[in-house]
Amino acid sequence: MGVRMARHLFLVRHGETMFNAKRIIQGWCDSPLTDTGRAQASRVGGYFARKGITFDHAYASPSGRTRETIECITSMPYTPDNRLRELFFGAYEGERDCVIPPMPWDSFFVPFGGESLQDLQERMSDALGEIMARPEHERVLAVSHGTASQMFLARWRDQGQCGSQGLPGNCSVMHLEFDGNGFHLLEVVEQEAMKRLLEE
Q1: Which of 24, 135, 166, 170 is deepest in the core (most CB within 10 A)?
Q2: Rounded to an integer, what distance in angstroms lies between the CA atom of residue 71 and that of residue 78?
Q3: Of the candidates 40, 48, 6, 3, which has an alpha carbon nearest to the alpha carbon of residue 20?
Q4: What 8-state DSSP symbol labels residue 92?
Q5: Which residue of the set 14, 57, 137, 145 is catalytic?
Q6: What are phi and psi of 99, to 5 degrees?
Q7: Would you call 14 a catalytic residue per the annotation?
């Protein structure tokens, strides 16, 4: 029996949105990308092209901001997946971010009809693990959200497989290997690094 080669996941946070710029909480509520956000997403597409990175499948959260982001990155068809959505903040959706405590939030939003960080982490890990285990999914692009990506990385950090990562910047690229059992973080590429590469 041959040894199965590791598969590769490229997880991207969406570009800057109007609510990001105004510091408004957006989980399942939504706002469009700003001009900066669209430029960030296009830069990710340029980065992948420059590095010769292509994909056999693509997925995105169904939120408008993630769909807009992936459509700026690539023209390939993609599949929306509800499990890649951001944390649901319940009654705090659409409020100014100054009204919530600093992380870790744990189950803070649950009494307000929201989601716990543990639920989010399990949802993201189950979704991406199941996606990467599908046939012919060797190099996958997935576009999700900041807290969702942060909690996904934290799941594998707890397993000793991912380095310490805070909230990923808008349109950062998280490159992970999947070995059939779990993920190993190879690299996080932020926008400034993409700019430098594309200016060379």
Answers
A1: 170
A2: 9
A3: 40
A4: G
A5: 14
A6: -90, -5
A7: yes
Model pLDDT, residue 189: 95
Task: Give me the phi and psi of 75, to 5 degrees please.
Answer: -95, 0
Can you tell me the mean pLDDT for 180-200? 93
Distance CA 118, CA 15 (A): 25
Q: Which of 86, 93, 137, 145 is catalytic?
A: 86
- Please report the pLDDT score of residue 2 as a whole number: 42
Query: What is the pTM for the complete model shown?
Result: 0.93
Q: How far apart, in whole angstroms, are the C-alpha atoms of residue 123 and residue 17?
A: 24
Average pLDDT, the chain: 93
In contact, 198 and 43? CB cutoff 8 Å: yes
H or E segment and range at residue 188 = strand 183-189
- The single residue listed with the structure tokens 């996904």 is 152
161's tokens:
């497989």
The whole-number average pLDDT for the span 80-95 is 98
Q: How confident is the model at residue 200 (pLDDT cuts 50, 70, 90)?
A: confident
CA distance 131 to 179: 13
